[in-house]
Structure formats: C-alpha cells, structure tokens
Amino acid sequence: MGLILPVGLIIVLIVAANVAAARRNGALAAAFDGALLLFNLPLVLVGLALLAAPPDAAADLAALSGLPLLDLTAAGWVTLGMGAWGVLSCLRPARRLLARALPLDPLSPVHALALALVGYLVGNTALTLTQGGLQELAEAAITVSLLDVVVQQALFVLAALFGVGFLVRRNGRDLQARLGLERPTAAQLRLGLRWIVLLVLLQWAIGAAWALLDPEQAELLGSINESMLAGFNTLGDWFVLALAAGVGEEILFRGALQPVLGLGFTSLLFAIVHVQYGITPITFAVFLIGLAIGVLRQRTNTTVAIFVHFGYNFVLGLLSLLAVYLERFVA
C-alpha cells in the first residue's frame, strides 16, 4: 500500500510528459527535460551525502528514512547511479546514443521519462540487494496480502495506460492497439497452453538443478517465498494472484515498455524487478520466461502474453497447494 504515493507522483509526471508530447512543441519538450533534470538532481546530492556519511551513521539514517540501510557506501553509489542515469535520460544527445540500440524516440518526453523510471526500478533492486542480499531478504520477508498484490498490479496498469497517453494522446481502439490488447484466436490460445507447459518445466528444471548445486541458497529462497506467500492457501487466492500479476505485469512490460525498450532490455528489466529472488539462477529463469513471453507478444499480442503469464503462475500455485496437501497426507 506504500506504493500509492510514489506511483501517484510518477503518474503525474507521466501525464505531464504526454501533454508535452501531444503539443508537439519543441520548447515545451525542452522544458520537460529541464524539469526532469531538476527532479533527478536531488538523487545525485543524496548519493553524494551517503558516500560522505560516516559508517556509524547507518542506524540513525535507517531510522530517519525508514529504509533498511546497512551499507551506506553501497547505498550511496546506488543512489548516485540512479540520479546520474536520470540526468542522462534528460539529455537528448544521450538519448540519441541509446536510440541506436533501442527502439525509442530521442525527442519524445515520454520516452525520456520511461528511461528515467527504468533507472529507478533497477536502482531499487540494487539497493535491496546491496543491503544484506538474500539473507537479509529472508530475515525481513513478510507475508504479502492479496489486497497488496491487487493494488500493486492496478498501479502498474494505471502507469501503463497513462504512459501510452490515456486521456491525452490515445483512447479507445488506438489505446488498445498501442498496448497490443486484441481478442486472441483459438490457435493463439492453444499455442499459449503449450508455452505454459514449457515455462513450468523450465522453472522446474532450473530450480531442481540449483537445489542440487547449491541446496542451502535454494532452501533460503524457498523460505523467502513461503514467508511472502503464506497467506495464499486456497485455489481462489492463487487464481486472483495469478490473474492480477498476469494483467498488471504484462500490460506494463510487454504492452507499454517493450515497444519502446525492445525485447531484450524489457526482459532483463522484468527479471531485475523481481527482487524477491535476489541474484540467483531463478533470476535467469525469470529472464528466460520474460523473453519467451515477449516473443509471444511480438508474434501474437499482449492478451496472449497475459494468458500465458496467468496460466504459468496459476499452475505454480496449484503445484504449491498440492505439495502442502501431500505433506499433510504423508504426515
């Protein structure tokens, strides 16, 4: 629920970027770049301040900010990196250079903001991983409620809708076409079913290999997931969770971001933002899953991607419930 305020601020920025893009006014676009620059400069200053702070100030700063700060130097470099990336996103020469590798428009205020937001997502993950890593995640893991998941995914959908110009540049069919929300055919759904099976098998194979090679870390990740998902113990819970995640993440990543950032970069970003996995072989599995669903989005549409993502999550939920039932039965 703590996401509402920052995402609300981000949506305001997204709407402003779309207004600047809709006006097709060079001066207005330049003004937005300047405003975005001012928005990112404080991050640079905070990063420098963290680097200059004495190590014994970590506890006081953690209490003041509400963040689990254990390593001020790492936090400083991450924050400085976020701010520096945000500043670069405001500079058109830097965007022109990135446009050589990514399908983005270097003159678009919307694409400039998208690049900055990507930096925030990656930075948030890096901040989490540098403040204790997987062990810290295990100790701090709390149970996630179904309401938390639904609200988070609803905010993702809102960010995606406003990001592609809802109520400013696009509505109705134009909005659906931009996000790739089309009615799937029977053949596309059959293809999706095959991919659900393949992705579940991929997840199982990588997980099994990791459990053999590094059983302690695999068990630690399992305990994190168990703690976070302890409240999901019915078929209905997993159905809603799978549907919310499928709709929210696919509309944001495959619908809104992939046409701007490209298949590979979006898949990498998709893997990075799943912070509960840390940097583990499961991160690689998530990247491959994102890559596969991204290819499906390119060859079919976002609706099929939603169907596959939902089906994959729901099958994993069913297997989780089945495992719990079998443990009780055996006991």
Walk me through what this model shows.
The chain has 15 helices and no strands. By secondary structure, the protein is mostly helical. The chain folds into two domains: 4-131; 159-330, no CATH class. It starts with a helix and ends with a helix. The relative contact order is 0.11.
Quick structural gist:
This protein has helices at 4-23, 26-52, 58-65, 72-89, 92-98, 109-130, 133-140, 146-163, 172-179, 186-213, 215-228, 235-261, 263-272, 281-299, 302-330.
SSE layout:
Elements: H1 4-23, H2 26-52, H3 58-65, H4 72-89, H5 92-98, H6 109-130, H7 133-140, H8 146-163, H9 172-179, H10 186-213, H11 215-228, H12 235-261, H13 263-272, H14 281-299, H15 302-330
* Regions with little confidence, pLDDT below 50 for 5+ residues: none
Helical fraction equals over 70%
Q: Let me know the number of strands.
A: 0
Distance between the termini: 38 Å
Query: How does the overall form come out from the CA principal axes?
Result: globular
DSSP strand content: under 5%
Count of discrete domains? 2
Radius of gyration: 21 Å
Give average pLDDT, whole number: 88
